Amino acid sequence: MAAIGLSTRHTTANGCRLGRRLRLIDQLGPISVVNKRACPPYRRLANSGRKAHTKVCGEPTETAMSQLPDEKPVESLDWDAIYRLGTPPWETGVPAAELVRVLDEGIVRPGTVLELGCGTGADAIYLAQRGFEVTAVDIAAMAIERARVRAEREGALARFVQADVLQFAATAGQFDLVYDAGFYHYIRRVNLAGFLDLLWRVTRPGSFYLTLAGATRESTEEGPPQVSEEEIHDELGRLFEFVHVRACRFPSPRRKQGYPGWSCLLRRPVLAKSPS
Q: How many angstroms separate the most distant Cα atoms in the chain?
């Protein structure tokens, strides 16, 4: 929260612009970091061009993937500068309660995991402590530096990578689990096609994908971007089958009850073997 409000003390033109950006992202809620092009300075973007897609559950066809429209880039934010100014409001410093719950349920077992937009590493470190081989990526160098310091302090072995998430995924390989808390509900509004391609590249049949996303159950002026259950099924159902989509809460120091969210656990289908 230290990052928000400091803009009033900036007197240079650059400082004023950054201040305006910080006030705009004050409403973003508990997210990590998104791609350079995936940072809308306002709460919602238009949904134009996204309704004519065909659901594909399982292996997506070449046509289904190629017909996804290119979405327009929006003004990028200097996420590293935001971290240099203090602790962003989406950084709670503790593992997400829903991540803890999912792992305790035992459906997802330790293996390789890729976290998208890891921030300062609370969830990545928790995953490492639960026995996962962790790769966590974020575009903000300051966030990655803090994550590495935290991991060393807590004795957790995790690989933290400072990189553009979409570019990193092109050569990252495949993982048993892909996880994000807030990346999907942003990138879907800016570059859904690129994000689906990312998920296709970093998973294989049998891989799990766990995303925590803002939900439409409550009307709020602040908090994370909201996505409906129908939209989740329409977009992510092209690649995955659903294990669960259930209600959860995003904790926030700005709102005692937090904000409504979805816990979405999905699995890439395993193709049945043809009878010999």
A: 74
